[in-house]
Structures are given as structure tokens and as C-alpha cells.
Amino acid sequence: MSFVHQKHLTPVDWVNYTLLAFISLVCLFPFLYVVSVSLTDPEVYVPLKFYLVPEQWSFASYKFVLGNDNFINALKSTVWVTIVGTAFNLVFTFTMAYGLTKKWFPGRNLILGCVIVTLVFNPGLVPNYLLVKELGMLNSYWALILPSITNAWSLIVVKSFMDSLPSEMEDAAKIDGCNDLGVFMRIVLPLSMPALAAFSLFFAVAHWNTYFNAMIYLSDSKKWTLQVLIKTMIIDSDAIGFGPDAGSAGDKAAIPQETIKMATIVLSMLPIIIIYPWLQKYFAQGVMLGSIKG
């Protein structure tokens, strides 16, 4: 027979929950405002007016943005960089971390030392730019992928994750005839699914939101990412076909520039918002969940 013990909230708990709820609302209001403005009918939109709920709903701004070549090109660039960059990040991070877990690996301590040094010392913008230039990657998507193919923090976390895996399972696999690659693919990676899911999200979000490197290394506007496009829209919308008269087509009225900006921001956030709930469940899972019992 089991008993359910209900926890009684103390005054301190009520204060904490109330404060957290207030902070959540403060963080949520700007997002609701952006969505509301993007869905407001251009004919009733009034600048500098706070919209929490659209007075009149319309998808005109979304139709305009999705029909704009600059947005489509930026979306394709961002998707390509995100998919390819995340794949490279996962491959290099997990294979290097697995190699560093082996104490017999030649030069292991030296490599670990070099990794840790990068946590403290950063070469800076100018050396990075010169390196990318000398490698011939300027105005190339690879300038956004290869320089950040892995990082010290991710390596250390994944290495610690793999250090906690039972060595007995690897030994048993080698007795059955598996080599190191087979052990990595058949034993280590399946047990590392929570870490794979979590770091997939970390890397994907980082690539999707890449802005500064894209602004520095990509001079061709056709290769701009979404974040660079949004920045340019805010500064000079006319230069990229998002100006106040860009929505005029035949007898159609011009779409307000503000609603176009908000629609673009919502569309740029939407993929991450959709993907995140599918990977969030892996965050709370243990390293050895279901692998060894007893």
C-alpha cells in the first residue's frame, strides 16, 4: 500500500513561485508582441502602438516574406550551415572526446593541455580573420563551420560523459571481436544518446543563430544567413527589397515595414521552437539509463 504525500507550500514557496511567474511573463511579453504585430492586418496597423492581440488577423506579412528571394536565399544558407555544421561538430567532438578517454593514447596529456589552454586564451578576431583568409574560405560557408568545428567546453563535457561509461562493456565487446571503431559505434554512441541529443541542440542553435562570423566572412548578400538579413532589414530595408514600397504589387497596398520585420523574426525562430521540445526530454535522462541494471 502506498501513500501519496502532498507537499504544503510555505510562504517562501509562494513568494518564489510568484516571482518566477512574474519573470516568465516579463520574458514572454516581447515575444507575444512580435507575434501579434506580425499577424496584424496591414490596413489596421498603427506604428508605435502596443499590440498584445491583433485587432484584425492577417498573414499578408508572412506571404510577402516567404515570397521574397532574399529571405529564401538566407533561409537556405542558414539551413545548410546548420545541418552540415552540426554534423561536423558532432563527429569531431565525439570522436576526439572518445580518443582522449584512452589513457594509452599517445600525446593525450599534451592534447588535453592544449584544449584547456583555449578555455583561458583566445587569439582574437584579427588572427582568426587572417587564418580564414589564408585558407581561402572568405565568402564561403566553410568559414562558418570549420573554425568552430569543436570547442574546449564541449570536448571536456563529452569526455567526462564517456569516462563514466563502464569499461567492462568495451572489454566484453573487444573479446567478441570488435575493434575500437566497432566499440565506438556499437557501444559508446548508443549509450551516449542523451549527450548526442543535447549537443545536437546546442550546436544547431549556435549555427542557426550565427551572426557575427557571417557578417565578417560573407560579403556576398546571396550567402547571408537569416540573422545577418534581419540586421540589415533593421538598418536599411530598402537596400534588400524590404522597404515600405516593396509590398506594392498592382492594386495591393504596401505592407508596413514593421510587420514585415516581425514576420521575418518569427519565421527565423520557428524551426528552433519546433525542434526543441523533441530533444528536451533527453536533457533529464541519466548517462546509464537502462544500460546496466543490478
Please explain how this structure is put together.
- Helices cover 62% and strands 0% of the residues.
- With 294 residues, it is an all-alpha fold.
- The protein starts with 10 loop residues before the first helix and ends in a 14-residue tail after the last helix.
- 23% of the residues are buried.
- The C terminus is likely disordered.
- Keywords: Cell membrane, Membrane, Transmembrane, Transmembrane helix, Transport.
Keywords:
mainly alpha; disordered C terminus; MetI-like fold; single chain; globular; cell membrane; 294 residues
Q: Using the CA coordinates, give the radius of gyration.
A: 25 Å
Q: Strand fraction band? A: under 5%
The low-pLDDT segments are 248-252, 286-294
Overall tally of structural domains: 1
What is the level 1 CATH name? Mainly Alpha
Structural class: mainly alpha
Q: How would you concisely characterize the structure shown here?
A:
This protein has helices at residues 11-38, 60-66, 69-100, 108-120, 125-134, 142-145, 152-163, 167-175, 180-191, 193-208, 212-217, 226-235, 257-280.
Topology:
Blueprint (H helix, E strand, L loop, with lengths): L10 H28 L21 H7 L2 H32 L7 H13 L4 H10 L7 H4 L6 H12 L3 H9 L4 H12 L1 H16 L3 H6 L8 H10 L21 H24 L14
